[in-house]
Amino acid sequence: AVLLTDDGRGVAAEIADRLADFGQQAVIVRMRKPGDDATQPFAADLADEDEVAALVERVHERVGRVGAVFHLLPLAADDLPWAQRAQRDTKSLYLLARALEDDLCAAGAAGNAFLFGATELGGGFGFGEAPLPATYSPAHGGTAGFLKCVAMEWDDVVVRCVDFDGGRP
Fold it and tell me: Coil, helix or strand for 3?
């Protein structure tokens, strides 16, 4: 299965729909907020280790092992201070990667594992001459840095970080 964290903009839903066209099972995981319906099977506080472990257990029970993760949560539009975004975006990626390490490394040994993270640092990872977009958050540097580390440790897993320019439509 492919696990996607929800960006709230429709990107995760579009990718899941496209994957379904190819017969690929996809699960969209939503970040649970206070007051949300606690019965949603694929919703959790992704910055909480116990909730992530329980979420992964539910994914295993309902759809099986995970061979790919698309971490799109950093693309979510919000007004959180950057320190809280780092806590949400990077920590959630860390906890998901840790909880899914066995799945992803096993799939990687078979040649079919992918870990993808999205950032919004202006399309050039914060570098370049163009002004940074209004959606810029230094918290996204943590996502990119974490993925670089994972890429060095998980030889059989394809690990990529794509930086978007949130100022463009």
Answer: strand
